[in-house]
Amino acid sequence: MAPVRIINPSYPLDKKSDETGIFKFPTIPNNPFTMFRNWYEDHKTENHIATNAFCLSTATKEGKVSSRNLILRRLDDDGFVLMTDNRSKKAREMRENPQVAASFLWVKLVENGLIHARQVRMEGAVEELPYDNWKELYEAEPLFCKIRSHVCHQGTPVEWDALKEHHDKLLQGWKEGVEQLNKPDHVVCYKIFPSMIEFYESKGPRIADRVMYLKEAKSGWSNQRIAA
């Protein structure tokens, strides 16, 4: 099979290949959460499909890494909240090795068909939150998500017909008012407390700008521009 050539999408193909430049952040705030909130708001859509999705990487205590995409459930002033099944692989790995990495990627077309790309990546500790801290998140879940939390043992083998039967039974019970779909014990939320947050931004045929924030034990956050 012939290899597939990957085209760099940063600029239109009819542009001259010798166009270049270096992007620069307009401002670099002292607190990385200020910068993240600004970017998050910039990329919000009505359905939030592309805004609150992020990749979470976990590892076993032996260092075997796995990654998957999740939805950011809540952005706090000190961390990022995610919801999961406590019986899942990622939850097991977070319990035995509570250090994770995560990344957000936002890409859109801007003027002249150029690509505007932003990436935020982070590393830090993760902790399970008490239910009182995030009760409103489960209550706000859509119906299918609440049913899923009752019928799906995340990551385990399943027979489709049995799953469908269980789903339909719960749905009918909910319609009749006999099934409240209260939160199962295995539905939990974790918060990522970053010790490092890095921002990367580029527009068209320009070298990206990049800044890394590090959490200092006593003085809060420090930042340093780094090469792309």
From TrEMBL:
Its cofactor is FMN. Coiled coil: none annotated. Keywords: Flavoprotein, FMN, Oxidoreductase. SUPFAM superfamilies: FMN-binding split barrel. The keyword Calcium does not apply. Pathway: Cofactor metabolism; pyridoxal 5'-phosphate salvage; pyridoxal 5'-phosphate from pyridoxine 5'-phosphate: step 1/1; Cofactor metabolism; pyridoxal 5'-phosphate salvage; pyridoxal 5'-phosphate from pyridoxamine 5'-phosphate: step 1/1. It comes from the Eukaryota. Residues 189-227 form the Pyridoxine 5'-phosphate oxidase dimerisation C-terminal domain. Its EC number is 1.4.3.5. Gene3D superfamilies: Electron Transport, Fmn-binding Protein, Chain A (2.30.110.10). The keyword ATP-binding does not apply. Residues 51-130 form the Pyridoxamine 5'-phosphate oxidase N-terminal domain. Belongs to the pyridoxamine 5'-phosphate oxidase family. PANTHER family: PYRIDOXAL 5'-PHOSPHATE SYNTHASE, PYRIDOXINE-5-PHOSPHATE OXIDASE. Catalyzes the oxidation of either pyridoxine 5'-phosphate (PNP) or pyridoxamine 5'-phosphate (PMP) into pyridoxal 5'-phosphate (PLP). This is pyridoxal 5'-phosphate synthase. It comes from Nesidiocoris tenuis.
